[in-house]
Amino acid sequence: MDGLGFEYLLLRIFECGMKESILRYLTKEEIAELKKALVDKSSLYGISVNKEGKLTVVLYKGDDPAGLASANTFNNCKRDKISFLKTKTVVAYAIATANSLITNRCNDLRDPEDYRLMDKYLEDVFNAKDCDTLFKTLVDYKSNFLGRFKDCFCPEY
Hints:
Layout (H helix, E strand, L loop, with lengths): L2 H22 L3 H11 L8 E3 L5 E3 L13 H6 L4 H25 L6 H16 L3 H14 L5 H4 L4
Antiparallel strand pairs: 1-2
Helix pairs in contact: 1-4, 4-5, 4-6
C-alpha cells in the first residue's frame, strides 16, 4: 500500500458512512427529488447519481474534517510519534466505521467469528508498535475481511 492507496481506501470508507448518514434521514420522495435535481448537475454538495441511477456520495480530501485520511498522514507516519499516533487514530476510526456499516447493512453477518475478527482488527491497530504493522493490518482488513462484505457494505466500493 502506498500513500495514495491509503488515502483512497480511508476516504471510500468514510464516503460510505456519509452516504448512510445522508440517506438515512431522507424519505423516498426526497431522494427522488434529489436525483431529479442532480440530472442537470454532475454533483451537488458531493452527492451525485451514478450510471445505474443510484445516489453516490463523493468525499474529497478537503472534506475530511480531521485531515487525517490523506497520503501525507501515510507518508509522515514514520517521522515521529505524533504522526504515528495520528495514523493509528485514522486507521482505527476507518475500521470502526466500516465495522459499523457492515453490522448495520449486511444480513449475512451471522457468524460469531466475523464479530471476533472485527474486534481483532481494531485491537491489532491499537497494539501496533510501528507503521509497517499498522499498514499490514489495514491491508489485511481490506483484503481478507472488508472484501467479503463489499456488496452490502458499500456497493460502489
